[in-house]
Design a protein that fits this description.
Elements: E1 3-7, H1 12-23, E2 29-32, H2 38-46, E3 53-56, E4 59-61, H3 64-74, H4 85-113, H5 117-124, H6 134-148, H7 156-176, H8 189-198, H9 217-228, H10 230-241
Parallel strand pairs: 1-2
Antiparallel strand pairs: 1-3, 3-4
Helix pairs in contact: 1-3, 1-8, 4-7, 4-8, 8-10, 9-10
The structure holds glutathione.
Amino acid sequence: MYRILYQFPLSHYCEKARWMMDFKHLEYEVRNLFPGAHRLLSWWRAHSSTVPLLKDGKEWIGDSTEMAFWLDARYPQNPLLPNDPLKRSKVAMLEEIADEGGVHLRRWIYGEILDRPEVMNVMLDSYPWAVPVKEFLWPVLQQGIRQLYRVTPDKTPKALEKMLAIMSRLEQTLVDNGGRYLVGDKLTLADIAAASLFAPLLAIPGTPWESLTNRSPLFQQVYEDTLRRPLGQWILRLYQEERESKDNWR
Ligand SMILES: N[C@@H](CCC(=O)N[C@@H](CS)C(=O)NCC(=O)O)C(=O)O
C-alpha cells in the first residue's frame, strides 16, 4: 500500500493531515505542490481546490475532514472519532470550529508575516527549481496569497477577533473536560485539529513555523498571550507528549 500526501509545507491543514496519519502509525510520502499549480492535481483527482490531498492506493481524498473519516473507516487502529455517538458528534463539532478558526488565523497571521524574508524561504526553498528565481516569484506569490485569503488591512483585525473568540470557546471546552483533552480521556480529531490549526502562533521547534520568531509587536503580544493561557500551554504539551513526528513536513 502506497500513500502520498500532497501538501504545502507551511499549511496548518496539512499539519493536521500529517498528524492524523502519524497518530495511526501509517507510512506515507510527503510531496510538495506549488501553490496555484496544485489546483490542477487537486481538481483533477478529488474535485477539490486545496491541499492536503491524499493518495491512498488508488483512492484520492481532497479534504482533511474527509480524510479523517476515510482513515478511520479504512484503518480502525487509534480512532480519530470515538464510537460513542455523543462523543463522536462533539468531536465532529469541535473539529469544525477549529477548522473555522484555522481560516481566521491564516488571514490574520499572513497579514503579520507575509513581508518577512524567512517566510519566503520556508515557502519557496521546498521547491528546488524555484530557489534560483525566488526573488522574482515571491511578489507574485505574496499577491496571490493576499487575494486568495483576503489578507487586507480592513479584514485582518476582524479575523484576529474571530480567531480569539474561537480560541476562548475551545479553551472553555478543554477546561470543562478537565484540561487534558477536548472530549473524553483520549486524543481525538478535535485535539489534533485544534492543536495543529493554532500551532502557527507558537513557533514550536521542529514545526514548519519554528522560524516565525521575528514578530511584529502585535504578533509578539498575541504570542505571549497565547503562551500564558491554558490553550497555549495545552498545545505545547500535546506537541511535546503526543506529536511523534513533528518534523516530517520537509
Ligand atoms: N477544508 C480544507 C481546507 C484546506 C485549505 O484551506 N488548504 C489551503 C492551504 S492552508 C489551500 O490549499 N489553499 C490553496 C487554495 O485554496 O487554492 C481542509 O480541511 O483540507
